[in-house]
Structure prediction request, 105 residues.
Amino acid sequence: MTDMTQQTRQVSLTRLSDIQGRLEALNKMRTEAVAEARRAHYSWEEIAAVLGVTKQSAWALFADQIKMIEANRERAGLSEAEAIALAIEATRSVRRSRSRRATSR
Prediction:
């Protein structure tokens, strides 16, 4: 490979990594906003309408994370951001575990 090609490849990976980091930050912010809306007693139907998904999809995407956020906040006295970060990592861990089980079958 030429130096330019290698440099172009590296730039593309760097861009991809940057985009992934931004997506994770946006997902965290979205989860925080959904948790806040639920604490303000908005229904899943109202939240789903804003997100452009069905209420079932909104619930499936966020309910477990919000439960973990609230449980962690109550137990540990964590800030909302800290609780959300823990919930997101726990959700990712469960998804990775499920994915590994599905591929090993």
Q: What stands out?
A: The chain has one domain: 3-104. Residues 3-39 form the longest helix (37 residues). The mean pLDDT is 87. The chain has four helices and no strands.
